[in-house]
Design the sequence.
């Protein structure tokens, strides 16, 4: 149980949620237990060996499905977060645009009502407009920076997941091949003893 906690902690440090880490650890424990059951069997006939092989293949297929589901859910979360940031930035941009339109409308009304204060109001509103433009430029720069960071994070996560997936695939194949060859060696040993 302590070992499972360490494995779960390893997956948590790789960016998985607690639930995802528990699913991966549970799947790996099931595969390990199934492979140990195969190794510890005294003797199997050909029919039992085929059944066992089918069970192993089924378990590998289940692990692959679980890993695909985990991979998709991780990507979905990152995409959803990215979309949320985009929507918030669009709302801020719309608010700034609405504010700019309000300032322009107020300027036109004041221009028509009070001609004597036109120059003063015009310079004041021009200053406000420049401040708003500066804010829009700053918001656009922040948006670009946030999108770039999100893209980098997505690329890093994708690369990490692909590397981990390939590593797990190779480890499973090595372990499966070792288990099969061990079973075959034991079976051939028994066969030689009997013949």
Sequence:
């Amino acid at each position: 149980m302590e070992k499972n906690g360490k494995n779960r902690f390893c997956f948590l440090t790789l960016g998985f949620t607690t639930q995802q880490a528990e699913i991966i650890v549970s799947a790996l424990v099931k595969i390990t237990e199934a492979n140990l059951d195969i190794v510890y069997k005294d003797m199997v006939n050909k029919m039992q060996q085929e059944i066992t092989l089918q069970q192993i293949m089924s378990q590998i297929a289940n692990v692959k499905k679980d890993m695909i589901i985990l991979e998709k859910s991780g990507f979905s979360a990152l995409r959803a977060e990215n979309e949320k940031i985009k929507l918030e930035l669009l709302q801020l941009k719309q608010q700034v645009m609405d504010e700019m339109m309000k300032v322009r409308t107020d300027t036109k009304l004041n221009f028509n009502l009070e001609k004597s204060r036109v120059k003063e109001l015009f310079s004041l509103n021009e200053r406000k407009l420049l401040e708003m433009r500066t804010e829009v430029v700053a918001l656009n720069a922040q948006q670009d920076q946030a999108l770039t960071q999100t893209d980098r994070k997505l690329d890093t996560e994708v690369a990490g997941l692909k590397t981990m997936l390939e590593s797990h695939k190779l480890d499973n194949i090595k372990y499966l091949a070792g288990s099969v060859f061990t079973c075959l060696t034991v079976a051939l040993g028994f066969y030689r003893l009997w013949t």
Observations:
- Residues 2-194 form one domain.
